[in-house]
């Protein structure tokens, strides 16, 4: 069991593996391909310029898959941990689904964006909730400014969101736990190295991550099987 004292500050980094058992495949799980396109080819600014309809088809498919998914025991365990720690949990997810929120987590930092939000590709209008496009749009929707509406996703080659807040939380944390993430995608893969040596560092997942050497503990197994026991949350 993970002992967390009343002075500990816990940073959790969740990855695609946390949602795998809910029916949302990881990129590695699908071999990094969608309809024979490498995922980088449909999730990048270059792809958006070349073929925005193809990009929307990909994200419409992902919205359909995510809308059918339900949170699993790992999401619920992390939501309960947030309640128990009363402000001392920082939950940073690389996932773009909303399963942490559906499980009851209130303060989730989505560093790679959110599947059910869109924004303008031109003006500074803030991202907005968007549950449409469960079928790909015939025309690319337009903003009032004339720009095109795009998914609110950090694509390959773009800067992740909220990095200042994330680095402040990393500086303060005494426990760092990564769950269901391969330790390959940067900058998230390097978070553990930022805290190694001064925080306890824990990995949870069925396979060893690429950055395993920076962790002091590794709990091999599926997140939904390991987390409830590790966090003592039945
Ligand atoms: P990844 O696809 O590179 O790796 C997935 C990891 O999950 C692997 O290490 C695998 O061993 C592990 N895993 C598989 N099943 C698991 C389970 N039941 N419990 C715990 N771990 C399990 O994923 P990544 O490291 O998160 O990075 C890939 C990128 O893909 C991220 O940027 C993320 O935004 C994006 N992505 C998100 C979703 C989502 O929102 N659900 C889904 C696919 C990809």
Characterise this structure.
The chain has two domains: 10-24 and 69-112 and 160-230, TPP-binding domain (Rossmann fold), CATH 3.40.50.1220; 30-67 and 117-153, SIR2/SIRT2 'Small Domain' (2-Layer Sandwich), CATH 3.30.1600. The longest helix is centred in the N-terminal third of the chain and has 16 residues, at 52-67. The chain has helices spanning 16-20, 45-50, 52-67, 73-85, 99-103, 163-172, 191-195, 223-230, and strands at 10-14, 33-34, 37-38, 89-93, 108-110, 113-120, 128-129, 149-153, 175-179, 200-205, 217-220. The strands form three sheets. A six-stranded parallel β-sheet has the order 5-4-1-9-10-11, with helices on both faces. Strands 7-6-8 form a three-stranded antiparallel β-sheet, covered by helices on one side. A two-stranded antiparallel sheet has the order 2-3. Strand 9, helix 7 and strand 10 (200-205) form a beta-alpha-beta unit. By secondary structure, it is α/β, with parallel strands linked by helices. The two termini are 12 Å apart. The mean pLDDT is 94. Nicotinamide-adenine-dinucleotide binds next to helix 1.
How are the SSEs ordered, and which strands pair?
Blueprint (H helix, E strand, L loop, with lengths): L9 E5 L1 H5 L12 E2 L2 E2 L6 H6 L1 H16 L5 H13 L3 E5 L5 H5 L4 E3 L2 E8 L7 E2 L19 E5 L9 H10 L2 E5 L11 H5 L4 E6 L11 E4 L2 H8 L4
Helix pairs in contact: 4-8
Bound molecules: nicotinamide-adenine-dinucleotide.
Nicotinamide-adenine-dinucleotide binds next to helix 1.
């Amino acid at each position: 069991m993970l002992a967390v004292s009343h002075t500990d500050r816990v940073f959790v980094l969740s990855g695609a593996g946390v949602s795998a058992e809910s029916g949302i495949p990881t990129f590695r799980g699908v071999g990094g391909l969608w309809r024979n396109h490498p995922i980088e080819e449909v999730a990048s600014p270059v792809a958006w310029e070349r073929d925005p309809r193809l990009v929307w088809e990909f994200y419409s498919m992902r919205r359909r898959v995510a809308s059918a998914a339900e949170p699993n025991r790992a999401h619920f365990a992390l939501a309960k941990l947030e309640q128990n720690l009363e402000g001392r949990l920082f939950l940073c997810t690389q996932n773009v689904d909303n399963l942490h929120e559906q499980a009851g987590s209130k303060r989730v930092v989505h560093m790679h964006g959110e599947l059910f939000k869109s924004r303008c590709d031109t003006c500074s209008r803030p991202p907005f909730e968007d549950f449409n496009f469960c079928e790909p749009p015939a025309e690319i929707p337009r903003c009032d400014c004339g720009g095109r509406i795009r998914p609110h996703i950090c694509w390959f080659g773009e800067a992740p969101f909220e990095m200042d807040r994330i680095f402040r939380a990393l500086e303060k944390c005494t426990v760092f736990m990564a769950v269901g993430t391969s330790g390959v995608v940067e900058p998230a893969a390097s978070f553990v190295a930022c805290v190694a040596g001064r925080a306890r560092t824990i990995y949870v997942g069925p396979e060893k991550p690429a950055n395993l050497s920076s962790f002091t503990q590794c709990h091999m197994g599926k997140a939904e099987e390991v987390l409830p026991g590790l966090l003592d949350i039945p």
